Amino acid sequence: MSSHNKETNSQNGSVTFQSFPVLKDLPKLSLPALAPVQVNQRTLTLHRNVAGDFGFNVRRTQFPDFRGRLRAVVFAEPTEVRCGPPRPSDIRAGLLPGDQLVKMNGRSVESLGREELLAIIQNSGDQVELTVRAMPELAELCDRTQRGVRDTGDSLMLPPVSNTYLDENITEDERYWLMHKNGYTMARMIETQSDGKVHVMVAGAEMVVDVTDVDKANPSNMDRVEDLARLRYINETSAVHVLRHRYGSGLLYTNAGALSIICMANEQEPLLCNKLVALFKGCRRQQMPPHIYASAQQAYRKMQMSGRSQCLILTGVTGSGKSTQLRNVCHYLCEIAGWTKSLSYGKISAALGVVEAFGNCATRLSKNATRFAQMFSLSFDAAASLRFASIRTFLLDSSHVVKQANGEANFHVFYYLLEGAEPELVQSLRLDSITKPFRSPLIREEDKNAALLGWSRLKEALSTLGISAAHARAIFSLLAAIGHLCCAGATQSPAQKAQFVRASSAQHAAALLSVGTDQLASAVFRGKMSSGGQSGPGNVMNRFSLSNRGQNGQEALEAFVAHLYNELFYAVVALLNRGLGATNLATTTSITIIDFPGGNFNAAWSEESQRTSGLADLTYNYLNERIAELFYDTSFTEPIELYDREQVEVDIEKPTLCPHQITRLIDQKQQLLNCVDIDLRSEERRGLLHILDEEALFPGATDDSFFERIFVHLGESRLIRRGCRPREFVLGHCLGGSPTVYSVNGWVKAAQPNVSEGSVLTLLHSSRDAAINELFSPFGMTRSESATLNIRRATQAAKLDATGLPTACGFFSNISMQTECIISFARHAGGVQFVHCMQPQPPSEDDGRSTGSEMLLDVPFVRSQLRSLLIIDAARASSRGYPERLSFKDFRRRFQCLVKSSSSLDDVLDDRAAAGRILEDTGVFPHTYRLGLSQVLLRSDVLADLENRRELCLSGLIVSFQRACRKHLSAKWLARRRTLDSAIRCIQRSGKCYIKVREWSWWRLYTKVTPLLAAARCFRFSCLRFSTS
């Protein structure tokens, strides 16, 4: 944009234009108005069936709109749904799942209750007339069956998008979007100047702006296009415009090439039901509208066709609804692949509820924020039938149980226990003696009701998963013991000499753990058992005991409680895996959904953006950056490397910005560790977490020294700078678009080793309670549970030095290895698919919900989320590239039926030549495919077109085969029928003959004498045997 203001006149002196330094003061600039949305209504006439009903159910409910306001909606849903996309006959003359009832027999149903609706149905004669309209997602599904998959126009069954939001009739070549502070506005391009400026007209005024402040606008019939990669001009503003129109129309899902985007507020709940699953079952990607079920179906279909495990990664900021989409994916896969009834969705939902209770908490940005990373795997057998599920979790911040930031709460399970426990359980666990600071009372009545409901659901879930009452009681005892330990407190003296402040609370905790109070104190403060057994050689003098950085009593207590909760969390997960059937390993493939804590990048957009982030926030943000790095490699690096290997020229370039810089800034390891040159080794650049590990192990180090070392090694990077206050620095997350302020207060203490880590399991193994001992005992574990334990130990164990204390493989190794385990698993999967959850508006500070603004979608906020993952660049690369790939052999075997078979030697021996001939004979345009060295590279719409042709070609063969099968079955039925008819006639003839002779005197004599003859013969035979003997 021009850096100065000026006014000039044209040649006739009548036109004045301005060049603004910023576009925030322009008059009358606002977002384009949304076109009116009205889904087409259908009038159906249904007749009574043989069962005496009309084949549909009426359901009246309160359904939220896009602003979260509840409104009464009446749904008319069919009792039976055929699998696959709706047929034209289903749309014209039948009901579909999610159909909203508007009128019944010409009467509006908006103000009618359920009883009145049932009365109208009962009083109807042999037929009833219904007026319905489809839900938006289903409207796209219905429209697709009529217009085909290659149409890129407006995807709703709606009138064409209105152009009333345009101030004047602007030709397509002159239509541009002008970006400003509040969003974007339609502008008319007048001319392009040579100095990087453009002359535009907007809101009746002419102005000169930078060329980077305008984006090319697409035709209005693409305002609701399903895939951003189908846009004629793929740019950031056009993508935001499409998302804004779709969100305003109730369309929450959008595709961007291989990526799926879900734009949903916290208070919104999508309409999902079992009958809706049937419409996506067995469909290809091009046959389905953008939906979370479509993403799950695509992963399931790829697993079936390739025989390789798939991975589905949910991304997004905290509070964007990733955990909800995890449940939706599991629900869909259970419905379509659970015909063996080995595992129901009820068990999966119960397991997810339990793990969320132990690993989720309320923060200022989300009411149900996930504080752990999980890989939820659904395993399938050779027939693609669901067999069992397993959960692998990584609790990234166990210290949250003892330290919560301002405005954050503890884990949900503590509030469930404290608010919902029965009086008998309260008395046995001494919950009434747990007071502040651990027990923060729930002030709002809705929070208390939520805690009571959560407690009842937790107990029901434990029962559903088959967890015994003894194990459940042991879990509750450990939770209560954690509460009592937090209330007990400790003196500020050195840990070796510390004592509990409240002895009664410590006694309650020891009683619940079934250990002695002296044993508990020794394990907490001295890291060893009082009976003589030691968790490690902690009594050896070491450099930490000689420095002034040893733990005091309170710090040792907090570290012990954090490790105790960490062990409890993984013990609960082990029980859940046992309940999900993870002991069975006879499976071939799996679909793994990766869910992790979202970054707090949206905190800068909230009302109180001046709050600083801590070490736990850095951990979560680092994991998000690693996932962004994986998305970058999947979308750009790997395709470009593939094109180079296949020697195919594609006009794709890597974006100038990449997330690798920020990730290496955080986790870069020291490469010259064994170098003899001390100066060279000390000057080597290393990551932020590695610097923290070094400072944590260095005697006398403080937060100030750590802060200064950050800028000694990383000060030259443009991604990090000093903050406004002491001990604060700013990291440029999301490619520099989301600067986050961190405060290093307490980081060195949090990262330093502690002696109580190894004493937790030792104390639990010495418990006199058999249930607690069994809960944490490594003996008797199944094979899968043992493998899970080995993974956890490998990603969390720290190397020990001669004193038994962790060395430089402590905090940094813990976070790095857990993150690397997740990334490595995704890289080695047979296919990776990303689902990006996006917030339409920034969250508010009070409850983590949207700000409640009348603006449907905050354009700058959504724009920043699009930039964080380079979604627009990924959509552009997908549009220009060839995302669909098949080997020559597979392509030939699959699509050979489309052309006449050739007997030439080249086609018989050369699969590449045969594939090229198939593409030429089918009339595929040359620019839509490329023949590499080992595989065919295709555009997405080309593969969809070939699949449709193949189905059409094979449909006649399948119909003929079905006709032959029916003929064979009919012939067999006819032969059986003829045999049965002959038998019936024979029986009938015998019956008629018997009726004729049964009254004949000689016949009656015969029937009476015949039994006597048998008796006489038997008597005669007996007499003969007696005489001979």
TrEMBL record:
It comes from the Eukaryota. GO terms for molecular function: actin filament binding; ATP binding; microfilament motor activity. One of its GO terms (biological process) is actin filament organization. Keywords: Actin-binding, ATP-binding, Motor protein, Myosin, Nucleotide-binding. Residues 43-136 form the PDZ domain. ATP binds at residues 316-323. Residues 223-951 form the Myosin motor domain. GO terms for cellular component: cytoplasm; membrane; myosin complex. Pfam families: Myosin_head, PDZ, SH3_Myosin-XVIIIa. InterPro entries: Kinesin_motor_dom_sf, Myosin_head_motor_dom-like, MYSc_Myo18, P-loop_NTPase, PDZ, PDZ_sf, SH3_Myo18a. SMART domains: MYSc, PDZ. PROSITE patterns: MYOSIN_MOTOR (PS51456), PDZ (PS50106). PANTHER family: DILUTE CLASS UNCONVENTIONAL MYOSIN, ISOFORM C (PTHR13140:SF706), MYOSIN (PTHR13140). Belongs to the TRAFAC class myosin-kinesin ATPase superfamily. Myosin family. This is Myosin-XVIIIa.
